[in-house]
TrEMBL record:
InterPro entries per the UniProt record, alphabetical: 4pyrrol_synth_GluAld_NH2Trfase, Aminotrans_3, Aminotrans_3_PPA_site, PyrdxlP-dep_Trfase, PyrdxlP-dep_Trfase_major, PyrdxlP-dep_Trfase_small
Name listed for the protein in its UniProt record: Glutamate-1-semialdehyde 2,1-aminomutase
CDD domains: OAT_like
The reaction(s) this protein catalyses: (S)-4-amino-5-oxopentanoate = 5-aminolevulinate
EC identifiers of the protein: 5.4.3.8
Coiled coil: none
Top EC class, one word: isomerase
Top-level taxon in the UniProt lineage: Archaea
Major location category of this protein: cytoplasm
Keywords in alphabetical order: Cytoplasm, Isomerase, Porphyrin biosynthesis, Pyridoxal phosphate
C-alpha cells in the first residue's frame, strides 16, 4: 500500500494517524519500509538521505552492523528478564565513566521518564517544590514540563496541553535561554526552587547555542542559591562528543538526563548524578521510581555496543563536524549567517541571524521553512519537518551524501 492510503487507514485507528505528533506531515507522511546507513526507503519506492536520524539516536546511522550484531546475539538469549543482568553494570560503568558529574545512574525507557524522575529526585532531595525551565525547552511529554515546550509542541501551536492542571505547572517557572539576569532575578524572589532544568545546547527550538560563559554562570548561580542543576543531555549526550555538553563546556551538573544515543537506537533514558543524590532513589532511598522495561537486556546490549564503538572510533566526531562545515560553507552567501552548526548538528533558520532564545526562534518564517522542507524531500533529502527540530548527520553519511545534501540546499533555497 502507498503512504497516502496507509495514512488514511492509520487516521481511523491512531489519533492523527501517528504515534508522535511531529510525524504528522501534511498532507500525509511518507511511510518507511526499511532503513540502512544514511538512507530511508519508503513504501512509495523512494530512497531518501536521512538528516533526521530518528531525531538523534542514530549517531552511527540506520541498522549499523556492529550494533545489529549485538542485538541479534542478545535475542538468542532472551529480551526481557525482569531480574538484574550484568549488562546493566557494564553500561553504568561506561556512562558514569564518561560523565565526571555522575557517580551513579539509573536506566529507564525514555528521555521523558528520565527527566520526570530527575525532577522528582531533585524535589525529594531538596525538600523544595518549584522548578525552573527554559522557555521553549522540551524535556518530554509529562505534565510538569509541558509549558512552552519546543519542537513538535511549538510547531503544532499547542505549547500548553489540555489536561495539564494549572496547580502542577504553577510550580514550573521559566526563564529565557542565554539570559543570566532573568535567572538571578527569579532566584532572588523565590527560595523554594528545587532545580533548574536546562538543555545545555537547546535542541528543541533549534539548535540554539549557549553564549560564551552562559553555562558556567548558570552553574555558579544555581550553586550559590542552593538550587540543583539538571542538565538534560537527551540530545547532547554522546552527540557533542563523549561526555556531552557538560564535558565540552566544562560544567558539573548535580543531575544529568540522557537518552537517544545511549540506547544505540532502542528505547532508553538515563538519569544520574552525585552519589548522595542518587542514593535517595528507591530502593536505596525514599524517592520512588520503577519500570518493567528499565534496563532491559536488548537495549543494554545495543547501548553497550554503540558506546564501545564510539569509544573505539571517537575520531568520527571530527569527520561529522567536517560534514556540517561543508554544508554550511556551500550555502548561498545570504543564508550563511542564519545557519547554526555544532559538530554533527545543524539547522538553517529562516530569519536573519541564528536565534539566541525561544522568542527569537519563534520569529522564524515557518511557512518558508515548510516550503523549503518539501522541496528538499522532493529532492531526496529528509530533514525533520519542523523549523524547530535539529538536523543530524551520522557516521553512515558518506562524502557523496554530504555533497548531495549541499547541492540540494542550494537548489531548494
Ligand atoms: N529531553 C530532551 C532534551 C529531548 O530532546 C527529548 C526528546 N526529543 C526528551 C527529553 C524526551 O525524550 P523521549 O522522546 O525519549 O521521551
Amino acid at each position: 500500500m502507498k503512504s497516502s492510503e496507509l495514512f488514511e487507514t492509520a487516521k481511523t485507528l491512531i489519533p492523527g494517524g501517528v504515534s508522535s505528533p511531529v510525524r504528522a506531515i501534511k498532507p500525509y507522511p511518507f511511510y518507511t519500509k526499511r532503513a540502512e546507513g544514511s538512507k530511508i526507503y519508503t513504501e512509495d519506492g523512494d530512497s531518501l538521505i536521512d538528516c533526521c536520524m530518528g531525531y538523534g539516536p542514530l549517531l552511527l546511522g540506520h541498522a549499523h552492523p556492529f550494533v545489529k550484531s549485538a542485538i541479534k546475539d542478545q535475542l538468542d538469549n532472551g529480551w526481557l528478564f525482569g531480574t538484574p543482568a550484568e549488562a546493566e553494570i557494564k553500561l553504568a560503568k561506561i556512562v558514569t565513566g564518561d560523565h565526571p558529574s555522575m557517580d551513579m545512574c539509573r536506566f529507564v525507557s525514555s528521555g521523558s521518564e528520565a527527566t520526570m524522575a530527575a525532577i522528582r529526585l531533585a524535589r525529594g532531595y531538596s525538600g523544595k517544590k518549584d522548578i525552573i525551565k527554559v522557555e521553549g525547552g522540551f524535556h518530554g511529554a509529562h505534565d510538569g514540563v509541558l509549558i512552552q515546550a519546543g519542537s513538535g509542541a511549538t510547531t503544532m501551536g499547542v505549547p500548553d496541553s489540555a489536561g495539564v492542571i494549572p496547580e502542577i505547572v504553577s510550580h514550573t517557572a521559566q526563564v529565557p535561554y542565554n539570559d543570566i539576569e532573568s535567572l538571578e532575578n527569579l532566584l532572588a524572589k523565590n527560595n523554594n526552587v528545587a532545580a533548574f532544568i536546562i538543555e545545555p545546547v537547546m535542541g528543541n527550538i533549534g539548535p540554539i547555542l549557549p553564549e560564551d560563559g552562559y553555562l558556567k554562570e548558570v552553574r555558579k548561580i544555581t550553586e550559590e542559591n542552593d538550587v540543583l542543576l539538571i542538565c538534560d543531555e537527551v540530545i547532547c549526550g554522546y552527540r557533542l562528543g563523549i561526555g556531552g555538553a557538560q564535558v565540552k563546556y566544562d560544567i558539573k551538573p548535580d543531575i544529568t538526563t540522557l537518552g537517544k544515543i545511549v540506547g544505540g537506537g532502542l528505547p532508553i533514558g538515563v538519569f544520574g548524578g552525585r552519589r548522595e543524590i542518587m542514593e535517595m532513589v528507591a530502593p536505596a532511598g525514599p524517592v520512588y521510581q520503577a519500570g518493567t522495561f528499565s534496563g532491559n537486556p536488548l537495549t543494554l546490549a545495543s547501548g553497550i555496543a554503540m558506546l564501545n564503538y564510539i569509544h573505539d572510533n571517537s575520531r568520527l566526531y571530527e569527520r561529522l563536524d567536517g560534514y556540517t562545515k561543508i554544508i554550511h560553507e556551500s550555502l548561498p552567501e545570504k543564508y550563511r549567517d542564519s545557519f547554526v552548526r555544532l559538530g554533527s548538528i545543524f539547522k538553517l533558520f529562516f530569519r536573519e541571524k541564528p536565534p539566541k532564545n525561544y522568542v527569537q526562534a519563534k520569529e522564524s518564517n515557518t511557512e518558508k521553512y515548510a516550503d523549503f522542507w518539501k522541496k528538499m524531500l522532493q529532492s531526496g533529502v529528509f530533514l525533520p519537518p519542523s523549523q524547530f527540530e535539529t538536523n543530524f548527520v551520522s557516521a553512515a553519511h558518506t562524502e557523496e551524501d554530504i555533497e548531495y545534501i549541499s547541492g540540494a540546499y542550494n537548489k531548494c533555497l
